[in-house]
Amino acid sequence: MKIKRICAVAVAIGACVISMTGCVNFKRAKKITVYADMNLAPIVMADATQIEQRFGTQVQMRFGTTDALKQAVENGDTPDVIILGGKTTERKGSYLYGSPALRELMSKKKVDNYVSIAADNEGNVYSAGKSLSSRNYVSGQDVINYFYSTPGRSLIKRSGFTL
C-alpha cells in the first residue's frame, strides 16, 4: 500500500513538471538592440534587414569602437547582442580564439558564451555574444544564427572578411 502511494505521488509530480514545461513559451521580441563594432556595419545592417524580414523583429543598432561599446556595457547598458573586435594571439580553433574585449565582458558576467563570426586580414577577430541581462534571448540568438546561415556566411565573405 505504501509503495502504491509513493508511485502515485511520483506520477503526479512528474505530470505537473511535464505540464509546466509545456507552458514555457519563448517568444521573439518585437524590437532588439545590437551593439556592433563599426567595422562590421555593412554586415550587421544586412543581417538586421534579414532578421526584420524573417521574424518581424525590429533591430535597433548602435555602432562604435569596440572600446566605447565595451565601456557602455560595463557601465550598465544592456544590448541584446554585442559584437566586438580585437586582435587575438590565439590560434583559430582554440576556445580562447575571439575578441579579447568580448572575452573580458564574459569573464565579468556581462555576456554569455561568445562565438567568433568574422576575421579580417589585419588579425582582428569579431565575436558576438548575448547580454546576460537581455530579456530577448531568442531574438538575440536569431541575429547570431544568421551569421552562420548560408546567406550570412556569403555576406561576410563578400564584405572582405573570413570566418
Give a summary of the structure in a few sentences:
This protein is of the alpha/beta class. The chain has six helices and five strands, in the order H-E-H-E-H-E-H-E-E-H-H.
Task: Furnish the topology, listing elements before pairings.
Blueprint: H1 2-22, E1 31-37, H2 41-55, E2 58-64, H3 66-74, E3 81-84, H4 100-107, E4 115-119, E5 125-130, H5 137-148, H6 150-158
Parallel strand pairs: 1-2, 1-3
Antiparallel strand pairs: 3-5, 4-5
Helix pairs in contact: 2-5
Main traits of this protein?
alpha/beta; five-stranded mixed β-sheet; single chain; 163 residues; 18% strand; globular
Give the overall shape, derived from the CA principal axes: globular
Strand line-up in the sheet with most strands: 2-1-3-5-4
For the secondary structure, the number of strands is: 5
The chain-level structural class is alpha/beta
Q: pLDDT below 50 for ≥5 consecutive residues: which ranges?
A: 6-25
Q: Indicate the mean pLDDT.
A: 81
What is the CA-atom radius of gyration, in angstroms?
20 Å
Helical segment count: 6
Distance between the termini: 63 Å
Q: Helix proportion of residues, in percent? A: 40-55%
Strand content: 15-25%
* Helix/strand order, N-terminal first: HEHEHEHEEHH
User: Mind summarizing the main beta sheet?
Assistant: 5 strands, mixed
Account of the protein in words:
With 163 residues, this protein is an alpha/beta fold. It is built from six helices and five strands. It has helices at 2-22, 41-55, 66-74, 100-107, 137-148, 150-158, and strands spanning 31-37, 58-64, 81-84, 115-119, 125-130. A five-stranded mixed β-sheet has the order 2-1-3-5-4, sandwiched between helices. The longest helix is centred in the N-terminal third of the chain and has 21 residues, at 2-22. The radius of gyration is 20 Å and the shape is globular.
